[in-house]
Amino acid sequence: MSLLKRAEAKILACIKNEVRSQFITLPNQNRIWTVIVRNKATRKPSDQASPIPLVMVHGFAGGVGLWVRNLDALSHSRSVYAFDLLGFGRSSRPAFPNDATLAEEQFVESIEQWRQSLGLERMILLGHSLGGYLATSYSIQYPERVRHLILVDPWGFPEKPQPQQEGSSAQVPGIKRPGVPHWVKAVASVWSLFNPLAIIRLAGPWGPGLVNRFRPDFRSKFEDLFDDNTITDYLYHCNAQTPSGEVGFRAMLASLGWAKRPMVQRVNLLPPSMPVTMVYGSHSWVDSSTGSQVAQIRGPQSPTQVVLIDEASHHVYADQPEEFNQVVENICRTVV
Asked: What pLDDT, in 10s, does the model give residues 252-290?
């Protein structure tokens, strides 16, 4: 058993509801690692329509295991699907083009092929960080498949301000808030020369220790579930492999905090009737004011809500899982 598979198995063992995990093979033979969580107690009889499922898309350098605090609660009344994006986690790691539009298209088409392979007609689509960017792009291209779009601290939305507009806090591109995490600074220092996580691979056997050094917060976020390095080991082994999704992500980067194709330039292409909820952590380095900008662009006739969760960082779902789960569950209840 691979070290990544072993770490993930330990994480998924914490889930109490029924868990099924499998590779979904796409027409081009790429495989998407998928976890499906259902609550046996609330499963509908075969002659009744099941509630629309929730599909969760992780952020850059993440994987399905990071949703461990959310899968049980969110699968109480409906099936929850979580998958490793193409090029990340346990999914296939194909070559990505260096063109921003083509790289984005490859990510989005892999999500659509994944959906087709599973036979999901409609979904509530939730994306975190990079996953939020891709979920929005998917919803623009395949709006008939998305009943509600939930964006959690989404990356890549604002336009990059001109140099004279940037304040002193913009020493790291795209970061608007004080207290920039050390790992963000570390990635920012190398992103223009290497793939963003090259430093982890270059560290060799010291890589796991490097993850613990730069991301000690991750261990603390899950310390009541694991009293060892399970989560940081999982993160390390997710990202110590061939940099595939990283190449795609780097192709879409203008600089660390900005996308070459900012999503605010395209949110007007979402159907006016599609509900969109944007969830931010009050202590996140992602600027939550973009949510208000999106609401303004979409206009008063389009259902757009911005939710700020107190005492939460960029990883809202892990910092304040109870409140996050309640916000998402409340949204899901409105979707029939």
From this structure: 998 767 999 999 999 999 999 999 999 999 999 999 999
3-class secondary structure per residue, the chain: CCHHHHHHHHHHCCCCCEEEEEEEECCCCCEEEEEEEECHHHCCCCCCCCCCCEEEECCCCCCHHHHCCCHHHHCCCCCEEEECCCCCCCCCCCCCCCCHHHHHHHHHHHHHHHHHHHCCCCEEEEEECHHHHHHHHHHHHCHHHEEEEEEECCCCCCCCCCHHHCCHHHHCCCCCCCCCCHHHHHHHHHCCCCCCCHHHHHCHHHHHHHHHHHCHHHHHHCCCCCCCCHHHHHHHHHHCCCCCHHHHHHHHEEECCEECCCHHHCHHHCCCCCCEEEEEECCCCCCCHHHHHHHHHHCCCCCEEEEEECCCCCCHHHHCHHHHHHHHHHHHHCCC
Digit-coded pLDDT (tens) for 141-164: 999 999 999 999 999 999 988 775
